[in-house]
What does this fold into?
Amino acid sequence: MIHSLFLVNASGDIFLEKHWKSVVSRSVCDYFFEAQERATEPENVPPVIPTPHHYLISVLRHRIYFVAVIQSEVPPLFVIEFLHRVVDTFQDYFGVCTEAAIKDNVVVVYELLEEMLDNGFPLATESNILKELIKPPTILRTMVNTITGSTNVGEQLPTGQLSVVPWRRTGVKYTNNEAYFDVVEEIDAIIDKSGSTITAEIQGVIDACVKLTGMPDLTLSFMNPRLLDDVSFHPCVRFKRWEAERILSFIPPDGNFRLLSYHVSSQNLVAIPVYVKHNISFREGSSQGRFDLTLGPKQTMGKAVESVLVSSQLPRGVLNANLNPSQGTYTFDPVTKMLTWDVGKINPQKLPSLKGTMSLQAGASKPDENPTINIQLKIQQMAISGLKVNRLDMYGEKYKPFKGIKYMTKAGKFQVRT
Amino acid sequence: MLTRVRPTILSVLRNEDLKEMLESNKESLKLEAMKRVVGLIAKGKNASELFPAVVKNVANKNIELKKLVYVYLVRYAEEQQDLALLSISTFQRALKDPNQFIRASALRVLSSIRVPIIVPIMMLAIKESAADMSPYVRKTSAHAIQKLYSLDPDQKEQLIEVIEKLLKDKSTLVAGSVVMAFEEVCPDRIDLIHKNYRKLCNLLVDVEEWGQVVIISMLTRYARTQFISPWKESGDATSFSQSLSEKKDQMEAKTYIMDPDHRLLLRNTKPLLQSRNTAVVMSVAQLYWHLAPKHEVTIVTKSLVRLLRSHREVQYIVLQNIATMSIQRKGMFEPFMKSFYVRSTDSTHIKTLKLEILTNLANEANISTILREFQTYVKSQDKAFAAATIQAIGRCATNISEVTDTCLNGLVLLLSNRDETVVAESVVVIKKLLQTQPTQHSEIIKHMAKLFDNITVPMARASILWLMGEYCERVPKIAPDVLRKMAKTFTAEEDIVKLQIVNLAAKLYLTNSKQTKLLTQYILNLGKYDQNYDIRDRTRFIRQLIVPSEKSGALNKYARRILLAPKPAPVLESAFKDRDRYQLGTLSHSLNTKASGYQELSDWPAVAPDQSVRNVEVIEPVRNLPSSPTSYHRYNSYMPDSTVTQRCYSKSGSESEEESSEESEKTSSDSGKSSSGSEQESSSESESQQKKKKKTKKAPQKKSKPAAADRYSEIPPVRWTLRASFFFPVNLACPDVTTPSFGPVKTYELLHHMTGKGLSAKYHFPRQPCLYQPSMVAVQVVLTNSSDHSLEEIHIGDRNPASLNLHCFNTIERLEPEASVTVSMGIDFSDSTQAANFQLCTKDDQFSVSIQPAVGELFMPITMTEQDFSKEQGKLLGMNETSETIAMATANTSSQAISKQVLSVANVGVVSSTQNDIHRFAGRTVSSGALVLVSLEMKESSSALLTINTEKSVMASMLLRDLKQALAQA
It folds into this structure.
């Protein structure tokens, strides 16, 4: 399936290659570079590129292209999903997935890639299994290894490989037994010029950090499970139990994982947490434009709207912006024409605003489109859909774990057209 | 010259250093050197010179070093074939290693070394590993099949035999890999799948996610050859002429009944739509698209739309597939139209795909919404996208006649747009639209003529000129004027525009020769000497056609009919229109060309092939107890019914009572079946009973059971039988075992009440598979309070050794005087009779206790046929065989008595035997799953030969001693 993998950085250098079958010359990447040159933005490189003898399937994460070389028919999503899983694993192991981190840990990276694929077919992608095979590098372990000469590599078949719960390693032990669940919801919305909602939907995830000894069997139930319209589970969740009782029952993997992602049914009206009053105008013939933006809280159920960040791609004709924020700071990049305004917290008594003028290229005609405004925000301790966890129970182990549940709402792809 | 030499000198030096390090005695130096070598390989530098130094380390004990050497070998063995052969014997030895992981990695490397000489060795290794005890090794052998096949395709026949064997494997671990091998080696041998079809369908949920993708796509292909079409409108597009056969089709459609196997596939794949793996979701979606009845396909919509939240690359592929689907089935995605609205942050190819889908979804009802949305897009700063939007508007206008005029007017407005690309694209689209209905649009043509001077994009200018020429009779005054202007600028125009000028001149000459004769001749003369030969050619051709002369002859008469013939309107259609000839989700579909190795999806057969080929008659013996039947997802639904878990469920319920009582009181009202409410009642009830009556705890416990069972009342009683077959697969399959294994159980003392300050504990082995972990031995402990005060917080404290894998029972909050309670534990003895030491604690005291298992308790019975028994026995000879002639007590000579005695000592299963004088028993060790085969051959005068075959020789000798003792007793 996957023949080879090349890692290409932003400046177009191949800094790592790995082959699972016969060696494919790195010149195959020339076709990729060609496509890269043709694309105006890094994101515009097509994910699937045919070449005379191979096919290149690539993903872009953290400004690194992961280019897989394929020789024959394979579902492209199979490769894409796998490459993303590779990135996730690197991130899990090294904390960040950057060129420097990969170069520093090149041996671990190679060992990981060796275990993840056999003859181009995925062998072990479960983080818990991999960690038993190859221990993540830590400063302490590196030191101990240099002194004692012991290794990072496991000698036994990871217990997960043969077990019915391959995602969990056995023999887990903690002195503090804790289970944390983060319910994070994102609002995707497009708001039109007049402030009315064109489309709005809520997508949520439950991320868990479970550090529990032994083989705990957890159940999580919701007060209002009917809200969840379309769900996708971590493989540990027992699907039948969900179908029958709407209860999440699972033996969790050890550590961090995404338990569930869901979509809130579209029948429910989506509360829009902020409103934007805007007046962005360019006059014909003049080299000045007016910019006036005010934010205010809308339906927030009494919670504060925090970490607000407004960004907007201004028209190409804009040379500079001279603005005055009532709070926070703004930056304008004259090259990319990107305006960002770090607002911070919205105070309902004193609404934040950004006012001023934009200078336009002399003689250039009036831009015919007003910029779109992207908004990021956070609201703590609330899930905007109203989803609530009812209770979390643990069976199969005798200790009492510490349980914590946190709610958060964020803006996902939240756009205001002006 | 110098600069080129330097690096090689440096690298030689570096290689010398590395060689020295690799050949040193110090492990750490070797490892360091290997790490650097791997670093070189990763960078794509050549490190092949070091081959001899590296290959020496292949047998090193250090596992990390060994792995790095493997990495090196696999990379360079192809180049250094002779030297690579040196390492082969190491792998051959490792293939016999008792550690399954070592065996598997040896096979992995051996099969990855692409050296043709070792093909026979590889073949042998694959065959052996395919019959390995460990499913992990068998999985590796499935991978090795593909490697060997790509190295030497001549081995195909033999490899197919191995594949056939592995396809029968019941382990979920193997299924995905072997199907992959099947797809690679012999995708046309559909006949191999028949017998395994149902098994694959049933295993699917538990197979790892990558295997699921492969199996689903194979099964899609399979189903298309084996079942008849569930689509009622089959052949609607193909045979209009054959109305007879069509009628026949309809008749058949009415009586269509889906094959139960077809239904099985659809049913078992449906839950996978909820997978977190996008590739799995996509493969289920394509399966439904290609196999399900039309009305069922809609269930995949939601899941596909969900994938749009994922990474950019995933979106790209999913949108492509949705684009193809939305052409044929608008209704599927129409409710989700808003999910395809474009955001300014999307990348260009995502935007274009979304536009494509929105256009496909457009109909009379939603067109106004879509057009409003399009208006925003046209203003986009991304001009390429704006141009694509204009084309999309054009397509909507042709497809939906109600909005054609609106669209045209909108497009005309765009003609005054400042951006050239937008204007040009509008002109081109208007041209196409006008062609479809040219009658009433002379106003638009006039408007375009006015704009002509401001438009610079060649394609747009050419389009306007073409329109002028085509409809010159509708704008009789303007057209000659335009021609006049063009005559002036002819030399400065682009080629494409020049061609249209010549065209316009010719058409005007035919319709209005009075005004344009001279202009035309002027233009034709300019064209005659143009630099471009296409233009020269065209000019020459046109001149011959329109200007009458002696040479031109008959053609001249038809010039008008040739040039001004009514032209068919262009059809604006989707670029995804013909993509459905490829299977959805494939690479070929994504590229719209046939990728190498693409397997065509066949058409439904007209008549269903024989269904009985999928029937499986022989129930084969269960080979892999630990992996196969303990399917997680099926396991879960039975678990709540088991007595043991019931107990801990009700326990933990009362435990969590304090912390959640407030909450549960609140919630029990709104959620009717909320368990906490009922549970709480029952347990508080039981507590009050305890206080009043001071009875044994048994009574309230029985009370709490139905309370717990209430929660699972939805589960139909049928499950009970299923559950039984899961927990006691052996006993059902082989009734011989049932009676003896439930015979009297030996109880051992754990803690005497004198030493335990009133707490006494006894334990026995219930001989059931342990619930908590398959590698644990189940132990039941009866705790009794013989003191005169109640004991609190009975639990398990420290264990010794600390690494002891123990599943504790839940803390018993309170044990009343004279009461006793039975609790279950699981202990992993790791196949040794070493005692498990731990502390039994109460609130005030701690007592050290230990459980020492008899060797016979460390087994699990398995069923086997006599043939299998002999076969396995044949593999466990030599070192693995222990035998002794023993004396038998006379009372023990009947086969029943022998079974009874053996089963009392060891937890093994009876193997039904055809020979009267040989008795066979089979079992597996609990932790490692090693086979234990016991056979007893009766000799004359109450002596017998007792043979034990197992890898665990220590256990064998201990078991032999115990059996000898038991059989000698009366």
The longest strand of chain A covers residues 402-417. Chain A has a mean pLDDT of 86. Helices of chain A lie at 29-38, 76-94, 99-104, 106-116, 127-133, 139-148, 159-162, 239-245.
